[in-house]
Amino acid sequence: MTNEPLPMGAIHVKGSSKAKDLFELTKPRITFFVLITAFVGFVLGLRGPLASMDVALLFHTLCGVALVASGTSAFNQLWERDLDKRMARTANRPLPAGRLTPAEAFALSATLSVLGVLQLFVFVNALTALLAALTLTSYVLVYTPLKTRSTLSTLVGAVPGALPPLGGFTAAHGSIEAPGLALFAMLFLWQMPHFFAIGWRHRKDYGEAGMRILATADPSGRSTGRQSFAYCVSLLPVSLLPTFLGSAGYVYGAGALLLSGVFLASGARFLERTNDAEAKRLFLASIAWLPAVLLLLVLDRIVIVN
Q1: pLDDT higher than threshold 90 for residue 67
Q2: Residue 201 has pLDDT above 60, yes or no
Q3: Are 170 and 181 in a shared domain?
Q4: In this structure, what DSSP letter does residue 291 have?
Q5: DSSP secondary structure string for all residues of 98-158
Q6: What does 255-289 look like in DSSP terms, one character per residue?
Q7: Does the structure show a pLDDT above 90 at 212?
Q8: Rounded to whole angstroms, how far apart are CA atoms 156 and 161?
Q9: Residue of 123, 174, 193, 206 with fewest CB within 10 Å of its CB?
Q10: Is there a single domain that holds both residue 158 and residue 216?
C-alpha cells in the first residue's frame, strides 16, 4: 500500500461502499417483509373503517418497527460473523468479509434498536414498544445462540418472527385481542415449513457452520418432511380464524382455504419426496402463500368494514 493520496473518485467510492455495507447489515428485504406484516396487523387492529386510520400513528408504528427490525438483523450478523465465514452464501457479508468492524456493527445495531423502541414508546404506546423489545431480545439473545445448540432453535426463532404483526395490531388497537393473536399464530406456523425448506436446500452450508437444524441433525430428511407437513396441516384451520373471529369475511375465508390447501399439498409432496426439488417447491409455495393471505385480509377488511 502506497502513501499516495487517494483520488477524489476513490474517496467517493469508499464512502458509498461503507454506506452500502451498513445498509446491507440491516437486511432490508427482511425489514420490508416485517413492515408488511406490521401494516396488516395495524389494519386488523383498527376499531373503525380504514378511512378513520390515524396516518401519523401508522407512520410512527412502521418507522419504529423498521428501526427495531433493522437493528435486530444487524445484531444477528454481528453475533454470527464467525459462522457466516464458514458458509459460502454468507461469507461475503460485510462482517465476515472484513468490510465492517464489529465496533461499527455494534454502534449501528444499538442505535437503530434503541431509537426504534423509543419511537414506539413515545409516539405509539408502551405495549407495542414492549413487543418490539421482546422481538429484539428473544431473537438476538435466545434464538441466535441456540442455533448451534439445538434443533428447537427454529421453533424458538418463529416467536420473534411472528411478533411484528401483533405489534402492528396493538399499535392500532391498544391491547392484545383474539384477532391479533390469530395473526401471530398464522405467522408462527407459516415460518416452520418455510424455514425447513430453506434448511434442507442449504443443509451442507448449515452443517459446515455447525448449525443445529433438522436437516443437519437428521440427514435422511424424514424429520424435516414430517414436521413440514404437520405445520402445513396446522396452518390450514388457523388461517381461517380471522373469519370465525369476525375480523375477516367469507371471501377471505374461501381464499385462505384455497391457498392453505395448495400450501398443504406442497408439504405433502415434500413429505413423500424429501429432496431439493420438492424443498424448492415448498419454499416457493410459502412465499406465495404469505403475501396472498395478507392481501386478502386487507382487501376483505375494506369490504366488511366499509
Answers
A1: yes
A2: yes
A3: no
A4: H
A5: TSS-HHHHHHHHHHHHHHHHHHHHHHT-HHHHHHHHHHHHIIIIIIHHHTTT-TTHHHHHH
A6: HHHHHHHHHHHHHHHHHHS-SHHHHHHHHHHHHHH
A7: no
A8: 9
A9: 174
A10: no
Residue pair 228/193 in contact (Cβ under 8 Å)? The answer is yes
Placement of cell 405433502 in the chain: 268
pTM of the model: 0.90
- CA Rg value for the chain: 21
> Which band of pLDDT confidence, cut at 50, 70 and 90, is reported for residue 10?
very low
**Is the domain of 26 the same as that of 165?**
yes
Q: Which amino acid is at 183?
A: L
Hey, is 175 helix, strand or coil?
coil
CB atoms within 10 A of CB 239: 27
CB-CB neighbours of 238 under 10 Å: 17
Single out the residue in 135, 157, 176 at which a domain terminates.
176
Cell numbers describing residue 265: 399439498
Q: Which domain holds residue 301?
A: 177-306
| Res. 294 pLDDT band, cuts 50 70 90 | very high
- On whether the CB atoms of residues 292 and 257 are closer than 8 A, the answer is no
C-alpha cell at 292: 396472498
Residues in the chain: 306
